[in-house]
């Protein structure tokens, strides 16, 4: 069914009834008392402050208090709080954002492929996606914006955006501290000091250190029997290690200078040093009736314990990153002129045992990456009379990065004819891109109840890649590798409009409808095995429709937000594995057209002063219309079009309850939460043995607040559910696992 038919006929009538039904209950009365707090949204860039309830789009805001209550560590934890959002922390490499919203994301870690969900830190986009599974330390809020966000946030937000805002000093002298200790030898320290340097200058310094053993233990386990490629049946003598241990330090200085009553300048910086082991890649045998080659050829059966490993390469994950942001706000006339200038620099060095076995079969040793970026946004937001508010702006972005990727493969795995020796592969590229854009958005109140929402963004960008494709080196080392490079370039331009309407039933209830175009730029394939596979591929576009309702009722004790969306995607960028000289490489192409629809409901209830209930439900139905896996094989393409989207659970549910009470000792708070998600495939091919079954994670905490001090005990994944983030084909089905049961105690203060 076409979009124009699907939205009004399949869901329009039903959703209208839903709106009317909910609107009818807003007159419910409830005793006065504890009310749901209002949360300010910063991502709309308007001249007037917005409450999340006034924004006509689906947004989940996680403020500093909720981050503290949930003991969230990074964006992976934040993702579980929002419907139809998966913020996976790993792809081929750890600490590489593999974020999905409403069924759309990136199914690879090819560095040259722009994300479909972008991350923004204080107005700065993370262009190079390495090191973007960010810590939530020292944040005022995290805003999760679902659906295309191209008008205000630019290209590469066809799925959505995540906007992070650093806590700013306001002149008050405040000292904060926190110590967290837990199992796996976890020990965290965090603290900040802020105050007035002078009458007009406020400063804050925040520091955090986190240390924890790996959640996966390399105990040299498993069983060994004589086999073709291991005739003795002996276990190699490999070092033991703890896999993906954490050793991180972050320093964040912030300065706010109120130059005069109309002008203020905010300077923000972050310096991060993160050290750890390789990603938690454990070899699994999900189907004993179909043993992998590690069993048949090496006589090795992986350990049965989900969190036990047997590697011959401990691996490493070293990230050094820093950024600086200058935000200038100048109040002119009825509005504010804002300038955001940002610079980021990052280096990334990894070693990984991809095969997950005690043999050197597939290794990624000594991979080196570095990049830097600069961006400038200038915008003016203002009002015209009482009926119009608007924002206009321009944007510039430039970045350059380089990637050296090395692989060691055992040659005897491809075929008996290949010499049973190690083969060394190497690829290298530098990638440059420049992007400029102009944008505008307007909200026009046609009547006291009805508002017209219009916007558009024009983007033009150039990309250039200088690449040595993945090729085999001469001999048993990386000393004699191909060095010839090829230079390719491409340019793209796009105009993305938005139109919508907002209707206010009352001060507490709005309904909205919108149509938006989204755009993800064309990309090169930095992991290509041949020059023909480098590309570029065409841009990815989406036409998205959304209708929603936001309502607060029962004297501020109840809130329900709901949204239905329908998205028509064209030329979705996908990667599939293809063999090159016996080495699996990723081919990038515009593989598919698809229709994605879904429903999202978020609710908060405060039935009594002591009890707060929160829940969210996300449902998504993603269907390919076409899926070209091989241009010369119509049968294979037809079969591929019937596949499910990978890494997209159909249903996600989150529920939490917080009960608070007071005693002579202080104020107590007990919180329990449950995050459940449906089954999902790990790969594009929908391989059954790679699928993740449905699972749920139960967390709980008990906190005591006494004056300025807080003591809490917490537990996460208390049922010790076995789950994984990604599973891949290979020698033993390498699995990038999720975290087991963790627990700890936290002591904090604010003076």
Give your account of this protein's structure.
- By secondary structure, the chain is mostly beta strands.
- It has one domain (3-234, 243-750): Beta Barrel (Maltoporin, Chain A).
- It contains six helices and 40 strands.
- The strands form seven sheets. The protein has a 22-stranded antiparallel β-barrel.
- A hairpin with a 3-residue loop joins β4 (85-90) and β5 (94-101).
- It is globular, with a radius of gyration of 26 Å.
- Mean pLDDT is 87; it is low at 1-30.
| N-end to C-end Cα span | 60 Å
Number of domains: 1
Structural classification:
mainly beta
Largest sheet: 22 strands, antiparallel, barrel
Total number of helices = 6
Q: Roughly what fraction of the amino acids lie in strands?
A: over 45%
CATH homologous superfamily (4th level) name? TonB-dependent receptor, beta-barrel domain
The CATH top-level class label: Mainly Beta
Please describe the structure with a list of short key phrases separated by commas or semicolons.
Maltoporin, Chain A; 751 residues; 7% helix; 6 helices; five-stranded mixed beta sheet; disordered N terminus
């Amino acid at each position: 069914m076409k979009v124009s038919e699907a939205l009004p006929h399949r869901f329009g009538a039903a959703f209208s009834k839903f709106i009317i039904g909910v609107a009818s209950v807003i007159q419910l009365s409830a005793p006065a008392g504890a009310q749901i707090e209002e949360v300010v949204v910063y991502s709309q860039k308007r001249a007037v402050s917005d409450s999340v309830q006034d924004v006509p789009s689906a947004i989940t805001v996680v403020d500093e208090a909720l981050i503290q209550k949930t003991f969230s560590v990074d964006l992976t934890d934040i993702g579980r709080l929002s419907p139809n959002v998966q913020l996976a922390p790993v792809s081929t490499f750890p600490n590489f954002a593999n974020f999905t919203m409403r069924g759309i994301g990136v199914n690879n870690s090819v560095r040259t492929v722009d994300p479909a969900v972008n991350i923004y830190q204080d107005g700065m986009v993370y262009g190079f996606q390495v090191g973007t599974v960010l810590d939530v330390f020292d944040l005022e809020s995290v805003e999760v914006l679902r659906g295309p966000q191209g008008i205000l946030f630019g290209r590469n937000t066809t799925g959505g955006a995540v906007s992070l805002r650093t806590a700013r000093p306001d002149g008050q002298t405040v000292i904060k501290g926190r110590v967290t200790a837990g199992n796996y030898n976890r020990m965290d320290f965090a603290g900040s000091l802020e105050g007035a340097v002078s009458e007009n200058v406020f400063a804050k310094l925040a520091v955090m250190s986190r240390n924890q053993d790996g959640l996966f233990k390399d105990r040299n386990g498993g069983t060994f029997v004589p086999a073709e490629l291991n005739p003795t049946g002996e276990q190699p003598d490999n070092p033991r290690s703890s896999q993906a241990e954490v050793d991180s330090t972050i320093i964040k200085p912030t300065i706010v200078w109120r130059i005069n009553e109309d002008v203020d300048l905010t300077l923000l910086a972050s310096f991060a040093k993160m050290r750890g082991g390789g990603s938690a890649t454990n070899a699994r045998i999900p189907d004993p009736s179909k043993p992998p080659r590690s069993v048949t050829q090496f006589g090795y059966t992986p350990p049965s314990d989900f969190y036990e490993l047997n590697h011959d390469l401990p691996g490493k994950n070293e990230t050094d990153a820093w950024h600086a942001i200058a935000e200038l706000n100048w109040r002119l006339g009825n509005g504010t002129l804002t300038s955001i200038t940002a610079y980021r620099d990052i280096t990334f060095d990894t070693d990984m045992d991809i095969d997950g076995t005690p043999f050197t079969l597939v290794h990624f040793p000594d991979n080196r990456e570095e990049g830097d970026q600069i961006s400038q946004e200038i915008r003016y937001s203002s009002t015209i009379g009482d009926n119009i508010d608007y924002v206009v702006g321009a944007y510039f972005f430039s970045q350059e990065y380089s990637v050296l990727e090395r692989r060691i493969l055992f040659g005897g795995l491809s075929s008996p004819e290949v010499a049973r020796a190690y083969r060394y592969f190497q690829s290298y590229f530098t990638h440059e891109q420049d992007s400029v854009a102009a944008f505008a958005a307007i909200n026009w109140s046609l009547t006291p109840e009805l508002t017209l929402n219009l916007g558009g963004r024009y983007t033009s960008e150039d990309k250039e890649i200088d690449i040595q494709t993945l090729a085999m080196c001469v001999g048993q080392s990386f000393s004699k590798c191909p060095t010839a490079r090829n230079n390719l370039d491409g340019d793209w331009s796009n105009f993305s409009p938005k139109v919508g309407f907002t209707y206010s039933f009352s001060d507490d209830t709005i309904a909205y409808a919108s149509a938006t175009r989204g755009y993800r730029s064309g990309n090169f394939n930095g992991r290509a095995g041949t020059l023909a596979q480098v590309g570029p591929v065409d841009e990815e576009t989406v036409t998205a429709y959304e209708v929603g309702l936001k309502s607060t009722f029962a004297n501020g004790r109840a809130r329900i937000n709901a949204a239905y969306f329908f998205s028509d995607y064209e030329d979705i960028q996908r990667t599939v594995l293809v063999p090159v000289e016996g080495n699996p490489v990723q081919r990038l192409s515009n593989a598919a057209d698809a229709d994605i629809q879904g429903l999202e409901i978020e609710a908060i209830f405060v039935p009594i002063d002591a009890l707060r209930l929160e829940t969210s439900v996300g449902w998504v139905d993603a269907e390919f219309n076409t899926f070209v896996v091989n241009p010369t094989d119509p049968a294979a393409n037809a079969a591929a079009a019937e596949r499910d989207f990978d890494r997209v659970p159909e249903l996600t549910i989150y529920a939490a309850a917080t009960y608070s009470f007071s005693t002579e000792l202080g104020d107590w708070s007990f919180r329990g939460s449950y995050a459940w998600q449906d089954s999902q495939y790990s790969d594009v091919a929908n391989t059954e043995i790679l699928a993740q079954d449905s699972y749920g994670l139960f967390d709980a905490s008990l906190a005591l607040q006494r004056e300025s001090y807080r003591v809490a005990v917490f537990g996460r994944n208390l049922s010790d559910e076995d789950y994984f983030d990604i599973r891949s084909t290979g020698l033993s089905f390498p699995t990038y696992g999720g975290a087991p049961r963790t627990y700890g105690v936290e002591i904090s203060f604010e003076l």
